[in-house]
UniProtKB/TrEMBL annotation, chains A, B:
Top-level taxonomic group: Bacteria
NCBIfam families for the chain: PRK05231.1, thrB_alt
Record-stated family: Belongs to the pseudomonas-type ThrB family.
Protein name: Homoserine kinase
One record GO biological process: threonine biosynthetic process
Catalytic activity: L-homoserine + ATP = O-phospho-L-homoserine + ADP + H(+)
Known EC number: 2.7.1.39
Gene3D superfamilies in alphabetical order: 3.90.1200.10, Phosphorylase Kinase, domain 1
Length: 315, 315
């Protein structure tokens, strides 16, 4: 369940008077998402999603909301925050920072084929190109520095062999600087469950709350690690080729990116191994986290190390 | 037909490189609209409408495009202009000012019932409320001054009885100042063919190219004259009541508006009688105009004069 803070019809109806979207007709909690409370909101003038931010610092939210607005304005199917009558996106409801966004059509596809991967590559490039004209900056909250710090926090919980593996990867990544690669705004969490498909089209890319400025290639690696791997974590060559070609058609890779690809695939796997280790061993009090298996991303990391970054980035 | 300026696949594909919406997949001319050339555009990342402005001065377009963006940002289902990679809405294609907008779902309903009219009233109020925080100003190009000027241009073409009727209405309206009423951004052309219905919802309000600042009540009157009249021009009391109640729930009418209602209904009818007279008697060279029957709005004006503004605005 993902309604941690209740909202009453009466409270929401009163809050909606700050907006220009008509009268409240229906309010339904949504049982998905692990960080925020989400609701479907239907008014006389449309269908929206209401999000109450349970744990994210209010000061970090404008970056995410303005990014979503920017990408929507550039024609990409992302939830567009709704401005209230004072032209503000962020309000307060039931004591929490709250935002209304447009409701997008579609469902996740958990077993994508090459056609899906090609379109995901094109979409990721579109997000990166549109993000280049976005004026705000905020770092990737799960970037290189966080990975080092997180490893230091979790390593004492690990058995010897796993700790050695983690230490070795941290040492490898310390010799490698993602900041030398083309930078931009990355989604940083473009997993299959964050994309809604409306037939053959991408109806929506959701959950921008890990977005930040980092190496664009890091985003490609996060995406490939999820969309192009089998249940065993092995990459499917055809799907990787489709995703990378879809991406490169809009933004060709640089020579530096081609050289860095093996290391970046590993950095992207490490990031999710670490966050899952932390959720598993050190869940923070007051946070409601769906604990996912850290072993899945330990395995993916090991496979990427062994494969040496193959399949390679296209020329 | 409404493709006056051809666009080739190759030209559009090259132009789309300025955007972040992927590769061109399909381009189709649209046979609707009388002022612009319109096309459905499908890319790898979404579905859009391309408009080439055939006759409108380029300097007037930013007001309309930024208004549409503003209303979309406020959660209303209007075509949202797509920003290019330089963050601009307005470009140039085939030598014409050109814009891409989001494609909205739905079809026009030409025989609306009270439920449609209630929702249209709510939508019109939503447009007016959201418009209050819009920063740009541009007058209603078919406002009071235009009506006087247009009457002077067309009256010599009319037979005596029709000219006397027009002169009488111009004299009546000259004694009445719409600027005393609450002002704001009005759509000014919210006819049934400018609204797309997606089931019970309004999927889209289109054609903002007559929008401008004027009395909000003028917009209500334009809308009532179209949505609530039978083929004979007579108002249907139940539909009028539904539309006005839907509107007043979000923005209650003022005492000044209630007093002015009969005159404003007449002003709104006069505006369309005049434009149709001008299109009929003085079509401008080089403009492609679908000539509509001026007699329809002469009859509507006469009926509004006789009825004295009934049904009245709700308290």
């Amino acid at each position: 369940m993902s309604v941690f803070t209740p909202v009453t019809d009466a409270d929401l109806a009163a809050w909606l008077k700050n907006y220009a979207i008509g009268r409240l007709d229906d309010l339904q909690g949504i049982s998905a998402g692990v960080q925020n409370s989400n609701f479907f909101v239907t008014t006389s003038l449309g269908r929206y999603v209401l999000t109450l931010f349970e744990t994210m610092p209010r000061a970090e939210l404008p970056f995410f909301l303005h990014l979503m607005a920017h990408l929507a304005r550039h024609g990409l199917p992302v939830p567009a925050p709704i401005a209230n009558r004072d032209n503000e996106y962020l309000g307060t409801l039931s004591g929490k920072p709250a935002v209304l966004v447009t409701r997008l059509a579609g469902r996740s596809v958990m077993e994508p084929g090459t056609a899906h991967c090609s379109r995901i590559g094109a979409m990721l490039a579109g997000l990166h190109l549109a993000g280049m004209s976005f004026g705000r900056k905020q770092g990737n909250a799960r970037g290189a520095e966080w990975r080092q710090d997180c490893a230091a926090r979790v390593r004492s919980h690990l058995p010897d062999d796993e700790r050695a593996e983690l230490d070795a990867e941290i040492a490898f990544q310390a010799g490698f600087d993602l900041r030398r690669l083309p930078q931009g705004v990355v989604h940083a969490d473009l997993f299959r469950d964050n994309v809604l498909w409306d037939g053959d089209f991408i109806g929506g890319v959701i959950d921008f709350y890990f977005a930040g400025v980092d190496a664009l290639l890091f985003d490609v690696a996060v995406t490939v690690n999820d969309w192009c791997a089998g249940a065993d974590g092995q990459l499917d060559t055809a799907r990787v080729a489709a995703l990378l070609a879809g991406y490169a058609e809009a933004r060709p890779f640089t020579a530096a990116e081609r050289a860095a690809w093996p290391a970046v695939l590993r950095a992207a796997a490490l990031r999710f191994w670490l966050s899952r280790l932390e959720d598993f061993h050190q869940p923070r009090a007051g946070e409601m986290v769906l604990v996912k298996d850290p072993g899945e991303y330990r395995r993916i990391l090991r496979l990427r190390v062994e494969a040496g970054g193959l399949p390679a980035l296209p020329l």
